[in-house]
Each structure stands twice: as structure tokens, then as C-alpha cells.
Amino acid sequence: MQPARIFDAFPAPSYRGNQERALQDIRDAFATGNDVVFVRAPTGSGKSLLARAIAGCARTVEEAEPSEASGAYYTTPQVSQLDDVAEDDLLADLNIIRGKGNYSCILPGEEGTPVNQAPCVRERGYDCDVKHRCPYFSDRAIASNREIAAMTLAYFMQTAGSEVFRKRDVVVIDEAHGLAEWAEMYATIHLGPRTIPFWDDLRVPDLDAADTDPIERAATYAENLAEVCTRRKDELLAQEQLTPAGVRERDRLQELIGELDWFVSDYRDPQSPTTWLVDQTTPPADASTSDEAVGPSDGAGDGPAGGPVTIKPMDPERYLAHTVWDRGNKFALLSATILNKDAFCRQVGLDPDDVALVDVGHTFPVENRPLYDVTQGKMTYEHRDETLPKIARTIVRIMAAHPEEKGIVHAHSYDIQERLAEMLDDFGVGARVRTHDRDGRDAALNAWKASDEPDVFLSVKMEEALDLKGDLARWQVLCKAPFQNTSDSRVAHRLAEGQWAWYYRATLRTVMQACGRVVRAPDDYGATYLADESLLDCFDRARSDMPDWFAEQVDRMSMPDLPTFEPSAAVGDASATPAPTPDRSPTGTENDSTDSPTRRSRREQSSPLADVWDTDG
């Protein structure tokens, strides 16, 4: 790596904000011998441009010996982030490769067939005479032979050990704050009717029924299941031609075999630091008890049958070592919300002494990104019935304060979204409200963004990777503190070990990500209204992990003087109270009180554990 090249590799014609200082600090961090550099850069810092400059410091093919790694990888967990890179002319030399399912076959009669189901994967020994023009293989060849290959984190991890995408000199991971959680998700094994094509033929043991350790019993079962999957896969491979369904089954079996082998290998390794957890649901009353596929050697024959199984790793250091850390010499991890360097290093298997942290200051005026306290109580499950109607009425008042401006409400769950939509409709403001379901998320979001109407979008799980610049949204409401689901065994395990700092830090990270959705540039502005009282508890308990720029927002938080509850004003009545301008709070004064007596009393009355227990997601 040549850190001194970082300025020459910066792709923009000029610097803005703190970019030049950030490049200096990143250069110095690598130059002093750090193998890993965290770049904590808030919204608007131009992280993609910084990432391109870092990638440009990689050793070139001409500079490298034949045995040395060269070039760079750029990867991000967010598909939307990769789409943004593809559309940015300044990043045109990031050669993007996506999974096979994103490309269509070009053979006559197969134009609508995804490449992962094309004749080349359906027919044994198929020789494609247009492979050199295939969009997937063309993109793959370009990305593998150019200096910078760009891909999603999922594709990057899946290609670990690939002869095509070998180790490179520099790896840049954008939006890296969730790396540990993404790794846990990718390494989780789901055994059930949706993931095993012949599930109904299996007899699954009740992993808690025997005296043995449930994880040991799961490992034994996984060994036997891998053998069954291998036999099934070999039967498919022996066929001259497969249907698209057969191709999907073959590929799924191959994937499942790898997952099971990895789990057994890691679990049996006494040196592995990974902790494994096993969850099992109760089988339905009419579940099959056939043991044709998995015989008595699996330990299931004599015991009661169990239901679907989920095998989860915690802090999968060995998995990350194989899929990430072995893929490069130097690493840059970029995010606005890597909150605690040492804690993050422990989660992903890095030594904090080998990691440098570069902080990039926020360039957005704090008065353009105000936080407003409109808390109505706690939104935990046991308090929700009482609190949610109050929040719905508050949203009507906020809508009246912004009669001509679009807004987004982060509902956190579909249950909350549906109940809010019903209440707002009952109040008579439903004509200004839009929702989405699980299958139509993107279509509903894009339709709302494209509309010129000042509609309100009730969203679920859109706190990250959403760009609502300018008039796309001038305000937002956080209905519920986005605490991790305590019914998840990984969360419960960590809390049982007293990892409350991790719990509040994870929540703060999501809140900070959400706060950045409606303010995207130094001259942009947008208000964030906090409706769940538990958010204030989170701020108090995670205060030591807040970056200075967000702490400044929290310190300036005030309680707005909203219009009275008048639904007609919320749907655009001309007499509605106008929304506050960026330099004026809703109370009409600048720099309003940051800690009103009302808000202090609420915090002082909260329980030590802030009533965070929540199991409905």
C-alpha cells in the first residue's frame, strides 16, 4: 500500500467540508503501520469518495511481485449503496460485480432467465458459445482483472476462497458499523421447510429432549444431515438436465452442505472463540415423523421429533477471518456510527492496538438537524396500548406543523405501522398517509418519493440506507426506540452476561442512522421528533459512546410548541401553523432550553433498566 498516493487518488476535482483533513489523517494512520483504520465519518462527508481515494493507494500489478497481492476491493452491505456508486461518474472506475441472479441470460429463448438458472447451470457439460458476452461473466472478468472490484458484502463473503477473487492489497468496507451483525446473519444456519427441499422426509430430533448438550446434539445431527444432503446433491448432478427448480435445489444443497460443515468444524475446534446457540421451534401437530432420509445413527430414531432449527454464532471471529480478514493486507472501515472502537474490535476479532480511529467532523450546522422531544410514554409491549394513541395524536399535530412538507414516520414494526395507520385514518388524516407491506417496500417508497404531495410515509426498518434529501422529507418521527429484540437468543445471552452497554450502544447506533435520513447536505434541513420516552433513557445510558457532533444535537434538544390537535389543519388547511424554519425552533426562539424540567422529571422517574424488554420485534 502507498498511503502517500491518497490525494492523487481522490476522484473529485476539489475538496468539501473536512475531506482534505480526513485524507491527511487516514494517510498518516496507514503510514504509521496500522493494518486497519476505522474512518468515523458522518452523513455528508462523502464516504464513497474517501473510500475511492483509499482504494487508489493499493499496490498496483506493476508494483507487486508475482506472489504479492495487488489491487483493492470496495464492498458495502447495502445494495442501495452499491447502486449509488454505479450512478456516480466520479466512481466510474469501481468495477461492479453482482450475484448471478441479478443478470439475465442472452441466449435465444432464455432472455428472461436469470444466469443462475440458465442452460449453463441446468445442463451437465453445457458449452455456452456466448459465454464471453454473458453479462455476468463479462462483469466478473472485468472486476477480477481491474484495480478496484466493487461488490456487496454478501457477494464478497461468498467468494472467499475463490480463484477469481483472490486476496488483494487493500479492502475498503463502507457502512461497516454492522459488520459483526452481518457476519452473524450470514453464518446462521436455518433448518426448516423453507431451506431444506426435502424437509418433510426428515426426522428432526428434539434437541432439548436428551441429557446431552443441545449444541452437541445439533452438531451430531448436522454431520448426518450433511451426508444426506450430499447424497441428494449427487443424485441431481448425475442427471443430464435439470429443471430450474432442480437447479435451485442443487445450489441450495451445496450451500447447506458448506454451512453444516463449517458449523461442525468450528464447534469441534477447541481453539475457536465462537459461541454457538441453538433455537428450535415446536413442530406442527401433523409434522412428518419419517426417518427414511436420516437413519438411527443421527440420534433421532428413538427420541421425540423436534421442529425447525436455527443454529446461530455469536461474534464469529473465525468466520470473519476466513471471509474478510484473510482477503486483504490493509483494511479501511467507514461508517458514521462505529461508536466504541475497542468494543467493535472485540466483536469482529481485531486487536484494538492494531487499529487506528480517524474521526471526521460534521459539517452540517446543528441548527439544521434539530431533535425535538415529543415523548408520550414508553413504547415497550406492556405500555404500548396506552402510549400509541397519544403518539398518533402527536403525529397529527406534527403534520399540522408541516402542512406542505413531506415526512416519514419510523414505526419500527408492522404491528405499530398498521395500528398507527388505522388511528390516523380514524382521525380523518388518512388521505395524507402512505404505508407499505413486506413485499412492496421499494415500490411504495419510490412512489412516495416521486410524489409532489406532502404525504406522510409510515415506514418499517428504513432507518438506514435511505436518502431523503431536500424536499423528499423535511421531518421525521421515531415512534419507538429500536432496541434489539430480547426474544432473540443472541440478545438474551448477551444481556444475561450483563452486556447492557452493548445493548444501548446498538440502539444509539440505529437512532443516529435514522437521524441522518432527512438532512443530507450542509444546506439541507430536517426535524427529528422523538416520541418514545425510552429514547431519552438510551441517550443517557449511551452518552459516553456518542460522537461529539451527535451529543451536540442531543444537548440542544427541546420540546416544541406544536399546534393543537386539529385534523383539518393536518391535511392542508390554509390556516395551519407553518413549519419552523431551520434557524427557528417551533417555540419561536433560537437555542431553546436543552433540558426542560418536564423532560428531566421523566428521565428521573425511569427505571434503572428503562423497561426495554420487548419481544414483538
Automatic annotation (TrEMBL):
ATP-dependent helicase C-terminal domain segment(s): 414-537
InterPro entries for this protein: ATP-dep_Helicase_C (IPR006555), DinG/Rad3-like (IPR045028), P-loop_NTPase (IPR027417), RAD3-like_helicase_DEAD (IPR010614)
SMART domains for the chain: HELICc2 (SM00491)
Membrane spanning stretches: none
Domain of life of the native organism: Archaea
Region (Disordered): 274-313, 560-617
Biased composition (Polar residues): 274-291
Pfam families, per database record: DEAD_2, Helicase_C_2
UniProt entry keywords in alphabetical sequence: ATP-binding, DNA-binding, Helicase, Hydrolase, Nucleotide-binding
PANTHER family per the UniProt record, alphabetical: DNA REPAIR DEAD HELICASE RAD3/XP-D SUBFAMILY MEMBER, REGULATOR OF TELOMERE ELONGATION HELICASE 1
Protein name: Helicase c2
Organism: Halovivax asiaticus JCM 14624
Lineage: Archaea, Methanobacteriati, Methanobacteriota, Stenosarchaea group, Halobacteria
